[in-house]
Structures are given as C-alpha cells and as structure tokens.
Amino acid sequence: MARVRGPPAKGTCSSGRRRSDRTSTAGPRLTGRSTPGRRVKRGETGRNARNPLYRAFPTGHHSRVLGHMTNPTDRTDTDNGQVDSNSNRDSTPDEREHREHRGRPDDDTALGGVFDTIPDVLYVIDEGWTLLRWNDRLCEVSGYTDAEIARMHPLEFVPKEDRDAVSRRAEAVFENGGTEAAETEMITKSGEAIPFEFNGAAITNGDGEVVAMAGSAREITERVEARSRHEVSRERYRALVEAAPDAIVVADAETGEVIDANRAAESLLGRSHEEIVGLHQTELHPPGEAERYRQILEDHADSGGLQAYSEDLAVCRSDGEEVPVEISASRARLGDRSVIQGIFRDVTERRERERELEQKRRDLERLDRINAIIRRTNRALVGAVTREGIERTVCERLADSAVYAFAWISEPHPTGGTLGARAWAGNGEASVEEISIAVDEEGTGGGPTGRAIRSREVQTVRDIATDPDVEFWREAAAERGFRSSAAVPLVYDDVLYGVLNLYAERSDGFSAEERDVLGELGETIAYAINAVQSKRLLFTDRVIELEFESESAESFFIDASGRLGATISLEGIVPSDEEADLYYMRVEGAPAEAVLALAAETPGIEGRLVSERDDESRIEFRVSSASITRSLLSQGARVKRARAENGEARIVAEVAPDTDVRTVVEGVRALFPGSELLAKREVERERRTTREFYETVTAALTDRQQAALEAAYHTGYFEWPRTSSAEEVAATMDIASPTFHQHLRAAHRKLLDVFFEE
C-alpha cells in the first residue's frame, strides 16, 4: 500500500503562492476518534458491500454519490465496478489541468446540486494526497477557484504547525481504515485562519483495500469561541479559587470523594494537593466524629443549594492538630457530575476572641460580686476597734461569698523564719493549724505568700494542681476543691501587716482586673489596722515605751552627725499624706551652712534654715526618703525623742499595749541595718484634766499677755474675715498697735508650748 506524501516543502502552495503567517489560537484538537475499516470480502453481495463510499458517508445514497463523483474518464473499472486507486496516481500536468474542469460533480445533475448544497465541505483524497473530488463549499470558504484547488496539495489548507498531526491522522486512515477526526484551521486564499473540524473515512475496493479517503469539514468558529470563552472563564475561576483566602474543597456529591482543592486548603490541612484529592470528605475532619460529619454532608446533599454551618466544627491537619472552622457549602454540577463545593474558614482567632470576651464577661461579673463584697467589708471595718476584729471580719466576709471558698491572714515572723495564720474562715479551717510557711529568701519561700512578702505585690496560682510552688499544700487543697489561689500583701505606708490568702474553686482564676481590686483591698485592710493601732495609742493610759539605738549610715541625720561632729535633735515632725514629711531639727556643734550643704548632696533631703544663734541653729528638713522615725510612725508609734550624736542615735517611741513589738522592731531593722532595741518598758501615761491644762497656761502668761489674748478672741480678731483689726483692739486696751502684737505673739507661744508638750 502506498504511503501518504507529506506537505509541500517550505510551506508554499503548489501554485507557488505563500500562505499567510496567521496561526491557530488553539492548535489542532485530535479527537482520537478511530473506527477500524471493514474489509469487504470477495463474493459479498448487497448495495453496501459494493459501495465503498458507504463507510465514508454512512447516511444513504452512497453509490449514486460515488458514481457521480468518479468520472469514467478518471478511473479504470473492474468487472465488479470498483474504483482503481491507481488511475490518477501518475497523471500528467495536462491531465491534471483537464481535471480542473471535471473533478467536481456536473452542475446540471440533481445529485451534483445536492452535493453542492451540503453546508459542510466535502472532499475525496487518494493515497497520493491528490484531491479527487470537492464541492462548491470548499471554494466558498477558501476563496480558491476550482482550477487553483486542483493544483494544490490538501495539506496546504492546514496551518504549517498542524500539518504533521493532520498527516498522521490521514495516514492512519489509509493504513488501518476506519475514521479519524481533527480540529484545526483552514487557511483561506486571503490568509484567514478559520476553525474547522475535519473528518475522514476510508473508501475501500471489493477486496477491502483502502483506495481513497472521503472527508467532510465543518466550520466550528462558534464552538471554538465558546470553548475559548469557557477556558477563559475556567481560568478566571481557577485563579479566583487559588487566590481565595479561605480553603475550598470540591467533592463528588454521590461518593463524597474529594476531587479538587485550592492552595488555602493545602495550607489549612497541612497536606499537598495530591494528598487531599481522593480522600473522603469525612477524612478531613476529626476521626472520632466521622459519623457526625457524614450526616451533615448527607443532609446537605439531600437539600442542595447554599448552606452555612456555624456550629462547633473542625478539620484535622496531617499532624493531628484540630483547627476550628466555619463551613459554607453549595451544590453544583461539574460536567455530568454533581459536586459539593465546601468553603472552610479558619476561625481560630475568632474563637479565641470569643473565649476572651466570654472570659472578660465572667471576670466582670465576678468583679461586680467582689466589689459588693469589698463594700460590705469596708463598712464592717469602720466599726472595728481591734486588729483582731479587722482580720476576723475580712476573712468571714470573703469566705461567706460565692467567689472564695477559704480565706486566712498571716503575719510574717519578725525573724523572717516561718509564717503562721492569725485569722481564717471558710472550707479549710480544719487544716489551718497545719499552715507553716517558710519566707526566708534563701529557703523555701518561693510560694505565693513568700513572693507577696518580698515583692509587696499580689501573687496568684492559676492552677494548684500543676504549680510546683504549692506542692506542699496541693493534696490538702485538692481534698477541699481548691483550684486557684491569691496572696494579697497588707501594706500601708511601706509597712507590711500580713498577707491575705484567698482560695477559689475555679481554675485559671484571678484575672488582672481581679488582682488590681484585691491589691486595693489589701491597702484598705492595712490602713484600717494602722488607724486602729494609732487610735488606741491616743486613748490608752498605759503604753509600751521602746528605746532604739542605731549606727546605720542609711539615715541622713545619723550620717551627718558623724561626718560633721554635730548633735542633731528632733524638735517636731509634721507628717504628710504626700511623699515627704517635715522635720524640725536643732543642730549644735556644726555650722548650719555645712549641714545644709550636706543635705543638698543627699537624695530625698531638702533643708531650709529657720533660725541661727551662736553655736545653735534650727533647720527645717523636707524628707522624702526613708527614715527611722517615719518607719515608727507608719506602724502607729509616737516618737517622743530622737537625738543623733557623733554617728550614733537614740530614739524613744511609744506604742499601744496590744502592738506586736517584734513586728515594729523588724520593720526598723529591715530599712536600717545596725539598729537594735535597747529597752522595752510598759509605762503609765501622765494625764492632765482640762482644769489642770488651763491652770498651766494661765500660770505661764503675764497679765498683759492674757488680756491681749482674751481681747483679741472676744472682739473677733481671730475670725475670718476679722471683725476687729489690731489697731482697734489696741485702742480699746489703750496701748499702741506694736505693743499689742508683741503681747499677742508671746501669749501664742506659751499656749502652744503647753499644748505640744501634751
């Protein structure tokens, strides 16, 4: 059998004209549709057996079409009327020229009219790639005349880049019979490239040998354009899907098998595209809930349309991590397949925000309850008259609430050894006697109570079951249902009065807001204790007198007395609620300028000369740094005397009888190392009656001083605004105004001397 000739060299037409360079937009689409040829055996009868065109156009009238298309002068008939395939193979140029006028069906026959009215291009090609027949449609589409077409190679109608592929399809028909199809373009005379689908079928002789190929070509411009639009739309859709921030998974609605996924899905699931495709939908979710997700998917498949799932859903990553998601699903058709497209949105951050908001809501509710408890506690503190009463009231109020299960208050041992309970209430009283906590910094004081003592800040344990710092009390806490705790230092004016320990039956308790509120409560309790102790000191007849000795260079006054060789004595203190107190000191043995210069060099000390006479001066000091006297005042003590000389000081103070003296001493030592308690004495406080105070004052005043004081008082000189001036009062006393001022100031001085001595 002859082989198929290839296309003309260099892409030129047989006439020598070069085709336009315009190329296909889609390239040849070879459908691969191939039907094996049917070999007609000798002796077979019937119209179809004798008509080789039947296999090319299996729709009827094949013998008449073949008879009309094959001119008797262009073929050699055998006894059975089959076409001799070699009749035109070696035709001369003159014969080819003659065929320009006889290759087409006769226009004056009915069959020729039908042939030419067919909307598709029809053609017949022999094994030597010679166009034997074609209809008018080829001329209309290509723009070539019959004479030009007769001189052309069939592959000249095909783009150069597609010729090899088309040639292989035609060769398959000639060698194997059957049919072949290809999508490519037809190049017209003007160079236009028109999309066409070419179909070719084998024409066989009586022996079943392929002698020619009959074909049709149908313009598919609309199909190609539609396909192009579809491809553009598909690419756009794919680009949108790939660029989507949410994971998108497509699954078969019938089988549940995943058939596609985007990059976001790969990232969410921690799997590659190849690993995702082929999984069942339920395999994307936690394995223990496969049946639940199967039911969700089945319900969706039954209902169709768009559905959103906001319940608690999750997907499972390749490493086993579960990621909370929100799923929106829609049902659609993909070709002949019904699919479900699921959009998975990672809601980890949203769920975290929701949990935070819910936690804040619970914290706010708890804070409201705590504030209500604190208000009731504060009201109870107003009526307390002893420290023990304050501590007991606080513990009972807190433990009786629904917020805390157990409360106890401790006070550090003055030597810093162990810490025991002073007051307690709630579900823990049976074991409170066993509480003994080490608080020394070198020891085992790493628990919340020890940390609160050292830091003077609220310390918490969010989970008693796992915190190693409370291992010593974990078992007892677990028996009582305690899951979290807080240690609140009771501090006022830098003095620690103890630690309030609270226990709750909730884990992860004591938020930052709650810690702030408890810190304020600790200050309130400490202030109440200080106020009670100070009040008792004012009204008690018996006091404890403490005498201290100190050589601490941390004190400015002790240090100054040693460096200047001076004696510095305390004459009075004016405590302040602000950061600084006023000290009035008498300095002997050193120039005031030297003392003031040293004060200017010391942080937290400001000095002002009040008066100076001979070798003695009075200086006002504004002290914002720590001092021994300030420490004593903060603990409710009253400083009677303080004197520093040559780098050593003696301080005498009074405290109420129920004061814990060890705590006072430890408070001084903590700030000023080198301080020691020399004596502790219980003394009877001397009390004067009002009459005794009056007699003492009048005995100190002269007649003129008392007269000036009484006249100023009765005439409204001390009112604001004054009802009488100094000149008017002086005139009534028949003395000069300067004399009146002299008598009045002297009276004031003597009155205040007696008052402050009290």
Descriptive key words:
758 residues; alpha+beta; Beta-Lactamase; 5 domains; 8-stranded antiparallel beta sheet; 6-stranded antiparallel beta sheet
Report on this structure.
It is a single chain. This protein is of the alpha+beta class and 758 residues long. The protein folds into five domains: 9-225, Beta-Lactamase (2-Layer Sandwich); 244-346, Beta-Lactamase; 403-537, 2-Layer Sandwich (Beta-Lactamase); 542-684, no CATH class; 690-757, Orthogonal Bundle (Arc Repressor Mutant, subunit A). 37% of the residues lie in helices and 25% in strands. The chain has 24 helices and 24 strands. It has an eight-stranded antiparallel β-sheet. The radius of gyration is 57 Å and the shape is elongated. The termini are far apart.
Compact description:
37% of the residues lie in helices and 25% in strands.
Tell me what portion of residues adopts beta-strand conformation: 25-35%
Distance separating the two termini: 143 Å
Which structural class is indicated by helix and strand composition?
alpha+beta
So how many helices? 24
pLDDT < 50 stretches: 1-108
Q: Per CATH, what is the topology of the largest domain?
A: Beta-Lactamase
Question: Would you report the number of β strands?
Answer: 24
User: What would CATH call the homologous superfamily of the largest domain?
Assistant: PAS domain
Percent helix, as a range, is 25-40%
